[in-house]
Structures are given as C-alpha cells and as structure tokens.
C-alpha cells in the first residue's frame, strides 16, 4: 500500500502577518499597480491614436506596454488579494497558472526588447538598409 502525499494547495505567508502592515502593503502595491497600469495604458492609447508614431520602435513599444500590463496584472492581482485575506491559500492549479503566465509574459517582454535592439541596430549601423518613413528595414536589403 502506497502513501499518497500529493500537494493540492499552498499556504502563502505573505510579507507580514500584522493586520495594520497588511493594509499598508495592500495600499502600496495597489498604488504601484495602478501607476504601472495607467502608465502602460497611456502609452498604448498615445501610440494607437497618434498618426505620427508609425515607426517600428513605436510598434514594438506598443506591444511591450501591452505585455507589461499583462505581466503586472498576473503578478500583482494575487498579491493584492492575498494581503486582504486572513488565511491566504492558493491551489496547485492556480499556482501553476500564475507561474506559467508570469514566465510567458516575462519571456515575451525579453523577446520584444531583443527585437527593439535589432531594430535600433539596423537603424544606426545600416542606415541605408533602414526605411526612415516608418516601415522599418527595407525588404531584401539585409
């Protein structure tokens, strides 16, 4: 007969157990989350509504802001909920979803930053191969 020791949930201790400090942590994380969210949404709205921001750098910046919004939401939401609850328990599947989404959006941000660096490399080091009218590298010249 085998002993079944499968983990189905985790008890998260959080940053503090003091109720007053939990409210301070909640307030600070909420302010930082809203600041990040509003900043990224402002960047997204500015790029989408402006006619002059058509270069590839702004295309990548739009998706970087979108990815950062998703990363902040999947990370901070659980922290905010956890700082309000008395007993902070997370199920195994919820933990795996949060780990996957954090890794996915984190890697997506890194990939976008690499593409932005390649775009700047082509614009600076190979200016004749780069279209300055906002369409990025010219086709067939790389």
State the total count of DSSP E strands: 4
What proportion of the residues is helical, as a percent range? 55-70%
Apparent shape? elongated
Distance between the termini: 65 Å
By DSSP (H or I, 4+ residues per run), the number of helices equals 3
- Low-pLDDT runs: none
Please give the largest β-sheet: 2 strands, antiparallel
Biggest sheet, spatial arrangement of strands: 1-2
Determine Rg (CA atoms, Å): 21 Å
Strand content: 5-15%
Domain tally: 1
Secondary-structure content class: mainly alpha
Multimerization status = single chain
Protein name: Olfactory receptor 4C16
Transmembrane segments: 24-45, 57-80, 100-118
Subcellular location: Membrane
Organism: Heterocephalus glaber (Naked mole rat)
Task: Give an overview in words.
The chain is mostly helical and 142 residues long. The chain has one domain (19-125). It is 66% helix and 7% strand. It contains 3 helices and 4 strands; from the N terminus they run E-H-H-E-H-E-E. The chain has helices at residues 19-49, 56-84, 92-125; strands at 9-11, 89-91, 130-131, 136-137. It has a two-stranded antiparallel ribbon. Helix 1 packs antiparallel against helix 2 (56-84) and helix 2 (56-84) packs antiparallel against helix 3. The longest helix has 34 residues, at 92-125. It is elongated. The relative contact order is 0.13. The model has no long low-confidence stretch (mean pLDDT 86). InterPro entries: GPCR_Rhodpsn, GPCR_Rhodpsn_7TM, Olfact_rcpt, Olfactory_Receptors. Belongs to the G-protein coupled receptor 1 family.
């Amino acid at each position: 007969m085998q002993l079944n020791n499968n983990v189905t949930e985790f008890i998260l201790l959080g940053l503090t157990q003091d109720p007053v400090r939990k409210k301070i942590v909640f307030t600070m994380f909420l302010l930082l989350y809203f600041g990040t969210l509003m900043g990224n949404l402002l960047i997204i709205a500015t790029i989408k509504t402006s006619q002059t921001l058509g270069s590839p750098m702004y295309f990548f910046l739009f998706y970087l802001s979108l990815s950062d919004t998703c990363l902040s939401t999947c990370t901070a939401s659980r922290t905010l909920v956890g700082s309000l609850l008395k007993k902070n328990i997370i199920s195994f599947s919820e933990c795996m979803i949060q780990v996957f989404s954090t890794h996915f959006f984190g890697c997506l941000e890194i990939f976008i930053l690499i593409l932005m660096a390649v775009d700047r490399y082509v614009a600076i080091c190979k200016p004749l191969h780069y279209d300055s009218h906002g369409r990025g590298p010219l086709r067939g010249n790389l």
